[in-house]
Amino acid sequence: MKGIKSSRMKAIDENCEHLGLKGLQLMENAGAAIAHEVRERVQKGNVLIVAGRGNNGGDAFVAARHLAYDPAITINIALIGSASQIRSEDAINNYGLLEHCRINALIEITDPQKLKEMGWLDNADIIVDALLGTGITGKLKETEATIIDLINDSNVPVIAVDVPSGFDPDGGEFERSVRADVTLTFHRMKKGLVSGHAKEYTSEVKVINIGVCEDAEKYVGEGDINAFRTRHGDSHKGQHGKILIIGGGPYSGAPALTAMAALRAGADIVTVAAPANVADIIASFSPNIIVKALSSNILCKEDMGTITKLIESHDVVVIGMGLGRAEQTKDTVSKIIPLCTKVVADADALYGIDLPVPKGIEMIITPHAGEYNALGGNGKEDTLEFSKRNNVTILLKGREDHISNGKRIAINRNGNPGMTVGGTGDVLAGIAGALFATACKMDAACGAAYINGAAGDLAFERMGSGLLATDIIDMITEVMK
Ligand SMILES: NC(=O)C1=CN([C@@H]2O[C@H](COP(=O)(O)OP(=O)(O)OC[C@H]3O[C@@H](n4cnc5c(N)ncnc54)[C@H](O)[C@@H]3O)[C@@H](O)[C@H]2O)[C@@H](O)CC1
Ligand SMILES: [K+]
Fold first, then answer.
1. ipTM greater than cut 0.90
2. Of 73, 187, 376, 434, which has the fewest beta carbons less than 10 angstroms from its beta carbon?
3. Ligand 1: residues whose CB is within 6 Å?
4. Which long-range contacts (C-beta less than 8 Å, at least 24 apart) are formed by 196-203?
5. Is 139 one of the annotated binding-site residues?
6. How do residues 27-79 score in pLDDT, each as one tens digit?
7. Ligand 1 center from residue 292 Cα (angstroms)
8. Taking the model in full, what pTM does it have?
9. CATH number of 6-218: 3.30.230.10, 3.90.1300.10, 3.40.190.10, 3.40.50.10260?
């Protein structure tokens, strides 16, 4: 069984919220499942709940409320930290309800020694480990690190909530982790839980259905763009992407639209490499775009030296808009692709790429139905297989966009008929390029499809069916706020 990353789980949770399924409802189901597991293992005795200040702890507060009905069970809760530090509303809500339940004792622990002195670890028949879940970030801090040691030293059976605390849910390095007797993970297996030595820490993993609605996963939603909305305070110039756009020649507007869309979607630096005849025109659209003039009136092999250097100094290449399909342009495209590490191929470039894409090159392609057919695609049902056999992530544009990385398919259903106007595909490619600088192919393609459609919907609200591609660009920041 393959697992999902914690960022994907977060996106699914947020999509649920937007569909009207509250986090509180999911937490209730998670907590009920924990209580059920406790009762399966302990019919009479002492349950120690070790809770953190996040939603992982919130799940355990729900479990405590469910268990409190059973007079044979004594519940002690150790909240690591203070109640005033609980940040999420859902966890605060469930913490508050404990006041009205038959809990033996609840203490706030800031010094791990206090937990030891209470004797709860020695008396417990089972420990519910709800200290840290998928929200763990960075190096393990104190008090949490010592609490994990105390749990492991206790030799009491442990039920881990979602993931053993301290464990990296995405399968990366971690300093120390609770060693559980069973792990209850919610909705889907997490990537880290199936990695390397995971079993040493998780023991048996049970995947618990908490009632996530199918559409939260099937369709791209707000949850898929939230990660692109936040920036850390210590960000520096260039960190959010240097994007190289290779386009133009027969046309000049297309690469300019792509460039402006990439900037609005958060790219720090955007350079357009364009044939000499259109370079000045593209530069005249906006002082925000850096333009590098190529040698001729179309992209050709004489430009390879210039382009090779430009690729080296950029994070993502977006290629194809307005290039035309001259034979030497197509040949040059096929020579450029192997030099790229991350590339978005759109429009005319789709006639120059060689499939399957060699290993080591990460490519997103953004064809419409006609281009997809020309690439050997066989209807939208084939997108998953197409991606797998060609080593690409495909964003197949249509009334509903079908996006696949060869492992899963996501569908984007926003957007409107006003978006059939020219240039909207160029905008989409620019957004995808910008997002790809900081995300994986699938997240970038899903995010770009959603942002483009949502910006198009806002433009439609204001302009009606006379909307222009430039109106969509103007709405990108509104969507990403
Ligand atoms: N709708 C949702 O979001 C749902 C979330 N669920 C639960 O929520 C969990 C995720 O919740 P959160 O995102 O609040 O995160 P967590 O509860 O996993 O962790 C957040 C807390 O950990 C602390 N922390 C983070 N990194 C640390 C480190 N390196 N050392 C010490 N302390 C650290 C933070 O200060 C914060 O208090 C899941 O694992 C799952 O158990 C479930 O309730 C199902 C629904
Ligand atoms: K946990």
1. yes
2. 376
3. 13, 23, 26-27, 30, 52-59, 88, 132-141, 144, 161-162, 186, 210
4. 196/171, 198/167, 198/171, 201/164, 201/167, 201/177, 202/160, 202/163, 202/164, 202/167, 203/179
5. yes
6. 999 999 999 999 999 999 999 999 999 999 999 999 999 999 999 999 999 99
7. 46
8. 0.92
9. 3.40.50.10260
